[in-house]
Amino acid sequence: MDIVDEITRAHRELAGDKRKVMVLRRHYDAEVADVWGACTDAERLGRWFLPVTGDLRVGGTYQLEGNAGGEILQCEPPELLKVTWQYGEDPGFSEVEVRLSADGDGTLFELRHTAEVDPEFWSQYGPGAVGVGWDLALLGLGLHLSGGTPVDEATFHQTDEGRGFITASSRAWGEAHHAAGGPPDEVAAAVANTTAFYAPEEESPR
């Protein structure tokens, strides 16, 4: 698998005003049932994304280790999973929806993240603040489905391959931002800030 080329396999859309809607859509060469299991089975989810705990049923709650948690709103195997996505003490409205459908010999995966975003934060980082993280997650899913070796999240951004992936992802979300009407100067600054956040330059030893 060409990890950096994985960026071009996904389609990104951005819509909304007060509530931003980010859409990430791509094909996986795996059956719908396999992709569904990877996204909803707690043991498999921990292998490519994050360990999850909670009352994992509709109306129950979940918590991803060191990350978001929330309520499970809908679960319609093997097509639809919808959850609230709460991170921090007062994050405001945030929901994530995953839809799966048959697509030729594989699966069409669509992730839709709808959230209220602080305008100052948005102007500084744009959709890439969350989008790069989702691209990294979908890379992990792709490696898991294909039997590949997971990337080391702690050091991935320090490798040439990791920096290339993060930079390409940040730029791709910048293109989606621009296509949705984002001012060019704001988009460029957001891409630079997001890239620097996910893949900071290492300080030279003195």
TrEMBL record:
InterPro entries named in the record: ASHA1/2-like_C, START-like_dom_sf
Domain Activator of Hsp90 ATPase homologue 1/2-like C-terminal: 29-137
Family statement drawn from the similarity comment of this UniProt entry: Belongs to the AHA1 family.
Protein name, as recorded: SRPBCC family protein
